[in-house]
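Morning. Coffee machine broken again, so started the prediction first thing and wrote up yesterday's gels while waiting. Chain of 267 residues, entered below exactly as on the submission form.
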Amino acid sequence: MRLGGHDTCAYFGEDIPDNVMTFASDQEASDVIKAIIRASGLVPNFVLKASSVLNAAAVTQNGKRYILYNQYFVRNLNQQTGNRWAAVSVLAHEIDHHLNGHTLGKNGNRPRLELEADYYSGFILHRMGATLEDARRAMEVYGPSTPTPTHPGKQDRLAAITNGWVSSCSADPRCRDDQNAKMPQTTHQGSTAPAAMALLPGQAPAPVQTNTEGLLRPGSVMQTCGCWGPNPRLTAPEPKCQNGQVVHSPCPGSCPSGKSPYAYVCQ
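Came back before lunch.
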């Protein structure tokens, strides 16, 4: 396949040569793609091909969309991680590039699009039955730590995968109830807000509760845990909350800035 003038989204951002060999996809990869599409409820708009790319890539050539993957990379990925979900997460990432039109060119900030695809990967893997550790495994083992002009660093990408998984979990009563039972209560220094949930990595937000006017009650989570910026405000206006404010809720762990991840909850 000649890919001159193509639009591509490679998983780790490597350059793709103008010419790649393509082959019929193997049954295992085809089954994975079908399972991802079935979980998303969307209609596939691409063709799956085994190829000579280094790992996996979403490619558009002459108006036709392809998911290209290296069979050796996929098999080695599962062996090295000891996790069958690792390859699923990579393919889900590439599928999102097509489903969201990222391979149509002129899409602006490339790192933002990569994080969108990582979010989708985490979200869809939860829907397919993967644990948070499963969803993160491929990136933890193979993800480059240093960001590039096109791809964020490992920690940012892991945060996006985590946020996608947690978002899917929060919509699943079985997952939500199981995770909420493990959440401790915490207070926040310098704030008169009632105790709010501390969001641990991989745990879902508390069930959203509203009053008769549809406003969110104190303790309702507005945002999943993440590295949202180096200098978060302790409180901020939020018209969706009953008291009109959200409060900063730190989470365990660390961000590239050296500070803790955080979320906001209704005050």
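The beta strands are 7-10, 22-24, 47-51, 56-61, 64-69, 185-186, 196-197, 235-237, 245-250, 262-266. Going to sketch it on the whiteboard this afternoon.
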